[in-house]
Design goal:
Layout (H helix, E strand, L loop, with lengths): L4 H7 L11 E5 L2 E4 L4 E4 L2 H4 L8 H11 L12 H13 L4 E5 L2 H20 L5 E5 L8 H6 L3 H4 L9 E4 L4 H5 L6 E6 L13 H13 L3 E5 L23 E4 L10 E5 L1 H4 L15 H14 L2 H25 L2 E7 L2 E6 L7 H10 L2 E2 L1 E2 L4 E4 L7 H19 L2
Parallel strand pairs: 3-13, 5-6, 5-7, 7-8, 8-9
Antiparallel strand pairs: 1-2, 2-3, 4-10, 9-10, 11-12, 12-15, 14-15
Length: 401
């Protein structure tokens, strides 16, 4: 069998348009393709590979658990799931954990819990969910409707109802929508897909205050920001507010699919036996790898190292920009960094991504005009230096074309 990019077009549903490059091996922050070409990874599988590729702690956990127990039904629990849940509870405001397989599923659980809580405690009228334009919360029909990007949710028929959208960082727009019939406000503590947009502390405190005033739940989607990505274990910890529910995935498994919803005992009580579930959620193999990833990231050394690397990468991007003047703004927190293109290069983020691949660098986009960088949280400083040099070559190729 010849395994190449043409095979994708032959056998895969065409909802993706992947690169011609097919990686076959990774180690740390380096990846090699079928032709043995080396790439430095500034993409991290879209903020998933928090410890790079084949980190020894994750490999050891996978091998050890892989020879013990992979999967049980939820008729029984398992030790890795219980250990990871306890660690999540001990490290956050939360008291209860629900495991899923992905960020979308964790968000689905959060939204269903919010609706169930409101129905149980306040009746049918309290069902409105408010989210934010340019937000992203997953691709299930419920989560993609809550996400504030119509391009992802249109074209599938009638949408789940009573969902409204405010403007991020605009408290007045939320205030105009929220009422005592609002059951939840869902938002990212730093918008990812929407362009790497950080909230102001005043905005976050204002959202919390409005939720309290109208007895609505505040849900933080920390799928992309959680598990060290911003330099805090969870981004809410640096914002001075505590949500009622957070969701976590991506980095939680370091590359192995896992998600979780975290909340309080009081709220969790509304997901009674049989009200929600997941065949694979809490899978022993996933939770064992998740536990290893969480333990490795949740140290002062790694979290402080994220903030150190943020400065190095932002300074490097500013130096590149001083030469080529392609960025209007360089922003983000920790190792979730966005570089917004100037007017002259608007809409061309994908061109920069492709040019970077040509130079042996993997990066991302966040919309059509923002380049996104989400490398490993422990990427060696040498790899950052070489990656920035490759990125400068890519920028030069675009500018001088």
């Amino acid at each position: 069998m010849t395994v190449n990019r043409a095979l994708f077009d032959s056998v895969m549903v065409p909802n993706y348009s992947p690169s011609q490059v097919i990686p076959v091996k990774g180690m740390g922050s380096r990846v090699w393709d079928q032709n043995d070409k080396e790439y430095i990874d500034f993409a991290g599988g879209i903020a998933v590979n928090c410890l790079g590729h084949c980190h020894p702690n994750l490999v050891a956990a996978l091998k050890e658990q892989g020879e013990k127990l992979w999967h049980l039904s939820n008729v029984m629990t398992n030790e890795p799931a219980l250990r990871l849940a306890e660690k999540l509870v001990n490290a956050t405001f939360a008291e209860k954990v629900y495991f899923a397989n992905s960020g979308a599923e964790a968000n689905e659980a959060a939204l269903k819990l919010a609706r169930r809580w409101a129905l149980d405690t306040h009746g049918e009228k309290k069902s409105q969910i408010i989210a934010f334009n340019k937000g992203f919360h997953g691709r299930t029909f419920f989560t993609v409707t809550v996400g504030g990007q119509a391009a992802y949710s249109d074209g599938f028929g009638p949408k789940p109802g009573n969902i409204d959208h405010a403007e991020y960082n605009d408290l007045a727009s939320l205030e105009a929508l929220i009422s005592d019939n609002t059951c939840a406000v869902m938002l990212e503590p730093l918008q990812g897909e929407g362009g790497i947009v950080s909230p102001t502390k005043e905005f976050m405190q204002g959202v919390r205050d409005l939720c309290d005033k109208h007895n609505a739940l505040m849900i933080f989607d920390e799928v992309q920001t959680g598990v060290g990505r911003t330099g805090e274990l969870y981004a809410y910890m640096g914002l001075g507010v505590t949500p009622d529910i957070i969701t976590t995935a991506k980095a939680l498994g370091g590359g192995f699919p896992i998600g979780a919803m975290l909340t309080t005992t009081e709220l969790a009580a509304h997901l009674k036996i049989g009200t929600h579930g997941s065949t694979y959620g809490g899978n022993a193999l996933a939770c064992a790898v998740g536990e290893a990833a969480f333990d490795t990231v949740n140290t002062p050394e790694v979290l402080n190292g994220v903030k150190q690397r943020e400065v190095i990468i932002k300074d490097g991007l500013k130096a590149i920009n001083a030469k080529y003047n392609v960025f209007a703004d360089i922003r983000g927190q920790g190792l979730l960094i966005g570089a917004e293109l100037t007017e002259a290069y608007q809409g061309r983020a994908k061109d920069f991504l492709n040019a970077a691949v040509d130079q042996g660098l993997m990066i991302l986009v966040a919309g059509v005009s923002v380049i996104r960088f989400t490398p490993s949280l422990v990427i060696p400083l040498e790899d950052i230096e070489q990656g920035l040099a490759r990125f400068e070559s890519a920028v030069a190729a675009i500018v001088n074309a």
